[in-house]
Amino acid sequence: MDEKVEIRWVEETDSTQDEVRRHISEYDNLSVVAAEFQKAGRGQRGNTWLAMKGENLTFSMLLKFGEKGFPSLKASEQFLITKAATVGVTDYLGSKSISCSIKWPNDIYFRDKKICGMLIENILDKEYLAFSVVGIGLNVNQREFPPQLMNPTSMSAITGKTYDIKEELDLLADYLASAFKATLGSDNEFEADHEYVRRLYRKDEFHEFTICQDGSLLEGKIIGVTPGGLVQIMNRKGELFQFAFKEISYII
Ligand code: BTN
User: Fold this and answer.
1) Which of 126, 183, 229, 247 is the most buried (most CB within 10 A)?
2) CB count, 10 Å around CB of 146?
3) Substitution candidate for ligand 1 out of 17, 19, 62, 138 with most atoms within 8 A of CB
4) Which atom of ligand 1 lies at the shortest distance from residue 136's CA?
């Protein structure tokens, strides 16, 4: 499979996630829609995604499975998409000399600050994936952020440079397409599992986490992530705990 990534830029839309969904049958596998401005950008946990017009990358990449795209993928294997997407973004940032880690499950961090967030929406056909819409918000040139964002940073804040967002998207889309092809394609030559775990934020370091259900604290270290995407945390006694997204939060 050697499809070229097709990138469509729109000046303004509600959300690039919805823009892709509206055209899902027309667009090829690995198509990208990018917006200079999203009026209703969506983040994780029902949050809005705020980005200043023209300063950052806000885009969605469509993945197709089956006849028109990647080989069939079981719903139980969908975390592979997260692994490939996060490895693709960190590879791209590394190529810009910005060394980042992956804050489980899919935030990209530079030190203790968030530079990129992802919203991955999968559309299932029975127990298989039909489509995945991988939405990425990468802070590029923005230097001032609204106070409600906890710990944002951007490429420009880190390097002091100003970037051409369209040129950067051309590069980033290629890194993402390569990671998806290597992880989801038939060759399976790429160890996304290994790279994902190796790049995890705060891996093998003891920190406190909040257990969301009752607000209690757990001191432990992240030692891995299960194939289904549960984070594995070991406490000082060697006891192992596993959590799904939204069951645990970091204290940063
Ligand atoms: C997060 O909360 O960290 C996820 C943010 C995802 C934002 C991106 S911007 C492009 C795409 N379109 C959206 O509406 N959301 C994603």
Assistant:
1) 183
2) 8
3) 17
4) 8
